[in-house]
Design goal:
Largest sheet of chain A: 6 strands, parallel
Helix content of chain A: 40-55%
Strand order of the largest sheet of chain A: 2-1-3-4-5-11
Radius of gyration of chain A: 26 Å
Number of strands of chain A: 12
Number of helices of chain A: 12
Oligomer: homodimer
Distance between the termini of chain A: 65 Å
DNA sequence: TTGTAGGCGTTATCAC
DNA sequence: GTGATAACGCCTACAA
């Protein structure tokens, strides 16, 4: 890529530490000492005052790039997500950004898919990010070599080989809660719609679901086990397939709300009374669950909290040379609404 | 803020240009010349080959921070948005990020509200962003002085004093189209729900709407003109107020889909048949419009496109010292769905 | 207590 | 063609 020799507008002369020094009649390092060193560096009160005032007057702000160069770190974090069209990801990003900003870190956003992930990771390394957070995409689909040079915190997925720290909603419990709820409502013909994507969190939800069903003596029927794209359209067609079965299920658990909303739509279109003829349960509890009618029952997973916690964990890791990978599991919660009712 | 003296994990020795130089038996600046200078800098083919190979072998990647320091720019753009829980903003961000990445720019994400805007803007300046894009928040609520030191592109709002470039959906046309559609369906008792927030785009939508109504001889009734929070809940309560009127409207235009979805919900709850008893029209055309039943008619505004265009415009501005503020208006489009039907 | 020297990794300007 | 040398803005170490 060609750089240099390009004019840049607003090359307003930046105020530098040297300017402040001149203004205050001291040397530049002294300015640096007062402004960025440990709270009470030993420097004469008088000079300190003078420097602080000069800085104030000139509106001096240290150049983070220059600081980064010296410190070999940038006070910036990379955030790798596959599209925040998905509200779950949007919430994670939002939670992460907030904490990062509070802690003085910038957030570099990278919307990735399998095809461009390597490029994005490289970009982040080039910018000396202090660490990256990975959400919504399996870490092992990313270039391992570059990843190993970074501080990494994963969201919603166990770390391959336990190398990275993880924060996650309790996916096993989510699946388990889902099964329990449907069993409690006395359903037996219970179906499942999961996405093709082999995202660990989704697999765990499925596992928790199946395990709990089996424990109750309900054996999953293969024709009730549907795969779909993790989209509304995917949920729709999967639900249509279920409804066309000679003996359709009386309850369906979808591994994400987006899928569930698609299923919701397909069922409504087919004239099925949700909550009456058929119970439908999603997972994540996104906002629009309350916009459809009847409102979609769901398992609420923490999202902003995950983003926030991931950033905190990442920042903490930066401070300890010997930090070991940690795992944080946050609880999930069943939210009963209109789509899940006792078996007809 | 205290910096320095903090251990940072993975201080893996970065490969520098000096390393490559040593490896290739040339001086460091020569490496720089070959790797980052105009396509065909004059340097002996043999040396060039050697350098390229050395760089390849060592996996050298130039340090963007150092480049930024000398270029006085960072190849990073700031993105200021008020919450991407709002899918409209999420789409804008997504479109912007994509183009930025393609052009080699990083995106620094800042989720702002009026209270923390100044801090975020400062942060961006400290990081020497080459420019910022502002979406979903009125530019004149931000600190003007700092803003004036930046390259700015606004999304969906005309520039105060015409100082900044703007890209926007055609809000006037959106309002006008909305009015036209409802008039065509022979409605006369036409209501409006707009947000409290004085966001320019919203005011323009309203103006376009009113103007077109007036042109058709329909005089807006004050009791039909509701203000609401720009949320689902806001839309709900506004719609309830409308329904309680002695003579309720037969058609309602909401200035955003989020509000409209709230209105949709309130109407459905009240037993109103949307599209039958009452026509409802939103604006933006977010994805979940097709999830409710009947599906919500809307005016589609470009969102990813706005984000993408904003970045392109911003980057272009960086290249011309004498760039004048420009204005791009993108067309909008009526999407007819189930909630708008001929007057009963 | 403060100033001087040196370097972080890069690019630009010159001599050679 | 190529290699010193000097920035960019800041911080650390050491000397005064």
């Amino acid at each position: 890529m060609r750089i240099g020799n390009m004019p840049i507008r607003f090359g307003k002369p930046r105020i530098t530490a040297a300017d402040v020094a001149r203004h205050a009649g001291v040397s530049q390092p002294t300015v640096s000492l007062v402004l960025s060193k440990h709270p009470h560096a030993r420097v004469a009160k008088a000079t300190r005052e003078r420097i602080l005032q000069a800085a104030q007057e000139l509106g001096y702000r240290p150049n983070r790039l220059a600081q980064g160069l010296v410190h070999r770190r940038s006070f910036a974090l990379g955030l790798l997500v596959p599209g925040f069209g998905n509200p779950v990801n949007a919430n994670i990003v939002s939670g992460a950004e907030r904490v990062a900003a509070d802690e003085g870190y910038a957030v570099l956003l990278s919307e990735i898919d399998e095809s461009n992930a390597a490029r994005h990771v490289h970009t982040l390394i080039d910018r000396q990010v202090d660490g990256v957070i990975i959400a919504g995409i399996a870490a092992d689909t990313l270039p391992q070599q570059e990843l190993s040079r970074l501080n990494v915190v994963l969201i919603n997925q166990p770390s391959p080989a336990n190398r990275y720290s993880t924060v996650a909603g309790d996916s096993l419990a989510a699946g388990s809660l889902a099964a329990e709820h449907l069993l409690e409502l006395e359903h037996e013909r219970i179906a499942f719609i999961g996405p093709h994507t082999p995202l660990p969190a989704f697999r765990l939800r499925e596992r928790g679901f199946v395990t709990r069903l089996r424990a109750a003596g309900v054996v999953p029927r293969s024709e009730y086990w549907q795969r779909a794209d993790a989209t509304v359209a995917g949920g729709q067609s999967a639900m249509r397939r279920l409804l066309e079965l000679p003996e359709p299920p009386t309850a369906v658990f979808c591994v994400t709300d987006v899928i569930a909303l698609g299923a919701h739509k397909a069922a409504s279109k087919a004239g099925i009374r949700l909550g009456g003829d058929l119970s439908l349960l999603g997972c994540d509890d996104i906002e629009m669950n309350t916009l459809v009618s009847p409102e979609l029952s769901s398992i609420r997973t923490p999202q902003r909290e995950l983003g926030a916690l991931a950033v905190r964990q990442l920042i903490q890791q930066l401070h300890r040379e010997d930090a070991q990978p940690t795992t944080h599991i946050l609880p999930v919660k069943l939210i009963k609404r209109g789509t899940t009712k006792r078996k007809p």
